Amino acid sequence: MMPYLLSLGAGILVGVLYALLGVRSPAPPTIALIGLLGMLVGEQAVPVVKRLIAGQPVLAFIQNDCARHILGPQAGSAAVAPDAANPPVPATDAPPRGRA
Predict the structure, then answer these.
(1) Distances (CA, A) of 98 to 47, 91, 92, 93, 95
(2) Between these two residues, 16 and 25, which has the higher pLDDT value?
């Protein structure tokens, strides 16, 4: 139940900000996408600050974990390459398509 209340609270806060900025809801696509990017970056700020306080390495965390979370898997990266190297093999015992 708590995630739903937090989501509602965040939505109300964004609605108030939209009203103060004079942006209509739903926001135009560019404003909405920039807002989503801000949400992704803001979501990563908490773990970065926690690592800074704990004295743990931050730069490697930002380059690896944060970048992967914000940008998603990139083409040609090690995370994508094994799937591309081993494409699925079609089944040979499947019934022919078309006629039933």
Answers:
(1) 54, 16, 16, 15, 10
(2) 16
